[in-house]
Design brief:
The protein is of the alpha+beta class and 235 residues long. The chain is built from 9 helices and 4 strands, in the order E-E-E-E-H-H-H-H-H-H-H-H-H. It has helices spanning 46-76, 83-90, 94-101, 104-121, 132-143, 147-159, 167-187, 193-212, 218-234, and strands at 2-5, 8-14, 20-24, 30-34. Mean pLDDT is 77; it is low at 1-53.
Length: 235
C-alpha cells in the first residue's frame, strides 16, 4: 500500500521473516521498522510460529509447485514450462519456485518422480494386501488415471528423443512401472519376466491411446485379468 505524506510516497513492504516492515520513500531510501513477531497477538511463541510456518511450507510449498508443474507441462508441453508459469498455476511468486528447486532441470526431475509416485499410489500398484483381483484392478486404474499426470509423463518421454539430457527421466519412468508390476506379480507368487513385459507394454500402449483417442479398452483389460489369474494358478 502507499501513503502520501508531505509529497513523499512511502511503500510498505512486509518482510518474509517475522513482521519487519521496510518503508521506502520516493528517493529510494529504505527505513526498517520492526513490528511484533508473527503470532504474538495470538499468544504463539517464536518456536511454535516457526514450526507452523515450516509445516505450511512443506504442505503448500514443494508439492503444490510440483503439481503445478505437471499441469503446466501437460497443457502446453515442456516449452511452456517457466518459473512464472508454474508460479501462476500455484498462486505464488516465481521467486519461490527458484528457491525450492534451484534449477529448471531439478524442477522437471522432481516433477517426474512426483507424477510417477502419484500414479502408482493412486492405482493400488504399491499396496501390500494383494490378490489377483486387486492386482488386475490396479492395472485397470492405471489405464484410467487422470489424464494430466499421464500427459505430463508422455510429454517428457517424447521430448527426451530430442533432448538427451532428459533420457534418464525416461529410463526412470519405464523402470518404475516395470518394477511395480514385477513386485506385485511376485507377491502373487508369479515370477515371469515375460508376463511382466507383456503387461507393461500393453498398459503403456493403452494409456497413450486413451490420452489421444479415448475409448473402451475393456476387452484388452479382461484378457490381462485372465492372464494374471492363469499365471497365479500355474504357480
Amino acid at each position: 500500500s502507499f501513503l502520501f505524506k508531505q509529497n513523499t510516497a512511502y511503500e510498505f513492504m512486509p518482510s518474509l521473516v517475522g513482521s519487519d516492515i521496510c518503508i521506502r520513500d520516493s528517493s529510494g531510501a529504505r527505513h526498517h521498522h520492526r513490528g511484533p513477531r508473527a503470532g504474538a497477538h495470538a499468544g504463539i511463541g517464536h518456536s511454535g510460529a516457526a514450526s507452523t510456518l515450516d509445516s505450511m511450507k512443506d504442505l503448500s510449498g514443494r508439492e503444490a509447485l510440483l503439481r503445478a508443474t505437471v499441469v503446466v507441462v501437460a497443457a502446453g508441453g515442456l516449452r511452456a514450462l517457466t518459473y512464472r508459469a508454474v508460479a501462476a498455476e500455484a498462486g505464488v511468486s516465481h521467486g519461490l519456485v527458484r528457491h525450492h528447486f534451484g534449477t529448471r532441470d531439478q524442477l522437471v526431475a522432481e516433477a517426474m518422480e512426483y507424477a510417477i509416485d502419484e500414479s502408482l499410489k493412486g492405482s493400488n500398484m504399491v499396496g501390500d494386501a494383494l490378490t489377483a483381483e486387486t492386482f488386475a484392478a490396479g492395472i485397470e486404474s492405471l489405464a484410467d488415471r487422470e489424464s494430466g499426470s499421464q500427459a505430463f509423463q508422455y510429454e517428457l518421454l517424447l521430448e527426451s528423443r530430442r533432448r538427451p539430457e532428459l533420457r534418464p527421466l525416461a529410463e526412470r519412468h519405464y523402470l518404475a512401472y516395470r518394477e511395480a508390476i514385477s513386485r506385485q506379480l511376485a507377491r502373487l507368487g508369479v515370477r515371469d519376466a515375460g508376463l511382466t513385459e507383456l503387461i507393461w507394454f500393453t498398459l503403456d500402449g493403452i494409456v497413450f491411446k486413451q490420452l489421444v483417442l479415448p475409448e473402451s479398452v475393456a476387452p484388452a483389460l479382461a484378457r490381462l485379468r485372465s492372464l494374471v489369474a492363469q499365471a497365479q494358478s500355474a504357480g
